[in-house]
Design goal:
heterotrimer, A alpha/beta, B alpha+beta, C alpha/beta, A: alpha/beta, Rossmann fold, four-stranded parallel sheet, 4 helices, 4 strands, B: alpha+beta, Cytochrome-c3 Hydrogenase, chain B, three-stranded antiparallel sheet
Chain lengths: 138, 461, 322
Amino acid sequence: MKSLDLKIIALLCHWCAYDSADAAGRSRQDVPPQIREVHVRCSGQVDPAMVLKAFAAGADGVMVLGCKPGDCHYRTGNHQALKRMRLLQQVMAATPIHPQRLRLDWVSAGEGDRYARLAQEMVSQVKALGPVDAKGGM
Amino acid sequence: MTRRILIDPVTRLEGHGRIDIRLDEAGNVSHAFFQVPDFKGFEQFSVGRAAEEMPTLTQKICGVCPTAHHIAGTKALDDLFTAAPPTAARLIRELMHTAFIFEDHLLHFFYLGGPDILVDGDPAKQNHNVFGAIAAMGDTLGRQVINIRKKVRAMNAMLGGSALYPVCGLAGGVSKPVDAKMRAEIIQTSTDALALARQLLAVFHDKVRKKPLYKEMVGNPAFNLSTYYMGLVDDNDRVNFYDGRLRVVTPDGRPWACFSADQYLDHLVERTDAHSYMKPTYLKKVGWKGYQDGPDSGLYRVGPLARLNAAKAMATPLAQQEYERFYDTIGHKPAHNTMLYHWARLIEVLYAAEQMVTLSRSQALTDPHVRTLPTQAPTSGVGVCEAPRGTLIHHYQTNANAIVERCNLLVATQNNAAAICLSVEKAARALIKNGVVTDTCLQQVEMAYRAYDPCLACATH
Amino acid sequence: MAGPPTIALYWCAGCGGCEESVFDMAEQLIGVYEKTRIVFWPAALDARSSDVEALADGEIDAAFINGAIRLDEHVQMVRLLRKKSKCLIAHGTCAHMGGVIGLGNFFSSKQLLACAYQHAPSMATPKGPLPGQGADTGTTRHPLPGLLPAVLPLDRIVDVEAVIPGCPPPPETMAQVFDQIIAGVLPAKGTVYAHQKALCHSCPRRDTRPERITVSRFKRLQDTLWDPTVCFLAQDLICLGPVTRGGCNARCISANMPCRGCFGPTTAMDDFGAGAMALIAALMADGDETDYEALIESIPDPAGLFYRYSLAASILGKGRRP
C-alpha cells in the first residue's frame, strides 16, 4: 500500500485546533494530504468510542487536537480529553493497534505552522508503522 | 477393502472429540485414534493479566468444573502472595469445592456417561441420555437427583455468587463470610445430599451392578489398563479433594511417589501429539514409552478410580465402608477396569456428602474473619486441588506488580489423556473383528472413554 | 410451526458453561425435551454431525450456538447450522462477543500454540512440531482442524437472529427463551435477552452510590478490605456495572465481588471497552498529566480488564466488521 493511501483522521476542536488548521491553509503551510480533518466542538467531545470507530472505518491513525491546558473554551474539556486518550493509549499498548497511532496534542488558534508540523509528524509516525491490518497484525 | 469408521463428534462429555477407526483388509482394527480438536491458548493469553483476575479467568476453561479452577487458582494466589487464608475461609472453600464435586459427579452419572450403564437396550434408539436415565431409574428418583443438584448448586451460589461462575476466591481468603442463617441452609442441603448419596449407592448395588452389559464389561480385560494412579491425599493418606500431597502408586499398588504440588515439575511432564490438541502427561521418572500401560510406561491415571487406588482409605465412615466393599468385591487393589470409574465415582459422591455435613457443622464456619491481606511481593504460586475428573494444578509467575508473566496449567483430564486414547484403541481392537461392526461394539468403544468423564476443554485449554 | 419445534444446540470454542445453563433449568428441561424435537446436542444426546447434514434446509426452527469461532471447523459447523436453521441464537458471551477466548487476539495463533506445545515448563518435547504440523493429513487419521488467525464472534461468520448474553446466561433466561419457542414464537431479528439498562440500575447497592464519584487511585482486590454493602466504585474498586447490561440478577455483586462485564454493552455503546474507558475516565479526579498517569498506572492490565469478554468484537482485537 502506498503511503499516500494512509488515512489519518484529525479531530480538531472548534475554538483552537480548527482555527490553526485554517491558518495553516491560509499561509500555505505544507499539510500532508493523508490528513482528513473533522470538526468537533471540543477535544473533550472525543471519547474512546469515536476513536475506535475511526479505526474500524479504516483510519490508520487518529490525531486529537485541542486547546492548550488552561485555555479550553469549556474550561475542563481538554482535561477530559487528556484522561480519556491517555487511558486509551495505555489500553492500545496491549493490543495489535499500536498506541502511537493515536496522538493527543495542543495548539492555539492561529498557530498554523505548529498545526502543519504536528500533522507532518503524525504522518511520519504512522508511515513508520504502516497501514492497519485488521486481519493479521498491526 | 479397508474401511473407515468415524464417530464424529463424540457425545455426552465436555468438549470436542472424534474417534477415527481404520480397518485392514481382514476387517480388523489397524488404527483407532481419539482426536481432540479443541484449543484456546489460556496459558499464553493469561500473560499480561492481573493475578487477582486469574481465579475467575481460568475458570472459563471449563463451565462444567469452574469451581475446581476457581479453587486451584485461588490457592495459587495464596501461594503467590504468601497469604494463608483464615480457618473460616478455608472451610468455606473446601465446602464449596466438595459440594461442587458431589453435584458434578451426579451430572456425569445422570446426564453424561452414566446413561451408558443405566439405560438398557439398543443404542440406536438414542435414549442413552438423561431422559432415558430418568425413565430407567424411575421418575421419582430421577427428579430427586435433579433436585438435589439444584439445591447444592443454589447453596454454592449463596457462597460464591453462582454455581456457573463462582467469584468469591481472593488471595488469603474469600469475599463473603457465612452467617447463621446461611449455615442452617447449608446443613439442610448437606443432610439431603447425604440421604440421596446413600440411596444412589443402594440402587447401584441392587440394580446397576447386576445388569449384564455392566457385568460383562467389568469382567472384560479389554477395558483394563494396568497403570500408575495419582490423587491428593491428606496426612493419613485418605482421599481429599481440597488439599494435601499428591500420592502416586504403581500398577501393583506399591507407593511410588508422594510430593507437594509445588514439586510437580520434578514428577510430571507433558508432550505434544501432532495429531491432536490434547497433551498427554506421564511420570518423568518412568518415562514415555508410547501409548501403552504397564510398570515400565510412565502413563498414569487420575479421577475417581485413581484417587481410590492411590489412597489408603476414605476420610468418612460410610464412604470407608463402601471403599472396603469395593476392593473386597474386586479382589485386588489397585483396580484396573475402566468401567469401575462409575462405581468409584459414587463412592466419592458419598464421601463428598459426608464431608459436606462435617464442614457445615464446623464451629469456625461462621467466623466473620475471612480475609488475610498479603504482606509480601508476589513472585510465583502453585495451587492444587482434585477436580472431579482428576488432579488440577495452576502455576502462576508474576512480576512484583502481580501481572502474570508465565502461566502453566496441568488440567484434570489432561492427566488421563494417554489412558483415554489407549482405552479407546484397546476397546476397538478387541470388539471389532473380521469386519463385524455393530452398534453395540461402537457403544462400548464410546463407553471406554465416557467412564473417565472426560472434559476436553479442560484437557486442551 | 406445525408440530413441536425442532431445536439444536452446539458449541464452538466454548467451555460447557452454556450447556450447564440449560441443565440448570433442572426439571424444566424435561418439559422442554417433551415439547420439542432436539436433533443435535453433543453434550447430552448422541446425534452426530452427519445427522445434521441429513436434515432439510431450514428444518431446525432454532439453533443455539455457544462458544467463540476459533478453529476452521467451527466456521464449517456454524455455516452448516445456518443453512439448516430458520433462526440462529448466539448463546452466551463467547458467541456474542468472542468471550474470554477472544483474549487470544492479544497474540498470534503461532504464539498461542508455541506457548502451550513448546515453551511450557512441563513440556518434554519443546523442539517437537506443533499440533497439525507435519502430521499425517488424512491417510490414517482425520486431519486436525487449524486455528483461524483471530477469534471471532458468531455474527462475523453467519447472520444471527438473537443473542442471549452472559457468561453463562442465567438458567431463568434460558427457560424463558425455550418457553417462547415452544409457544411457537421465534425471536425477532435483533432480540437481546437481557435488560436494556445497565446493571447499575438494578444493583442492590444502588442507593449507596454517590452523585459524584472521583477516584485518585484505584485499589486492587487482594490489598483491600471493603464494605460489603457499599458501591464498589465509591470504594475505589473498579466495577463495570454502569456500562454492562443488566439481567444477571447481580450475581457477582451478591458474592461481594465487582462486575466484570460479561453481559456486554448496553445499546449506548457498540464497543464494550470504549464504554468502560469512558466510565473510568469520567471517574478520574482532576489534576495534571502526571496525576492522570499515576491514576492509570493504578489499574493493572486495563486492556485485559475492559476487554475481558469482548476483545474479539473490537477493532482493538482484530474485530473489524466485514
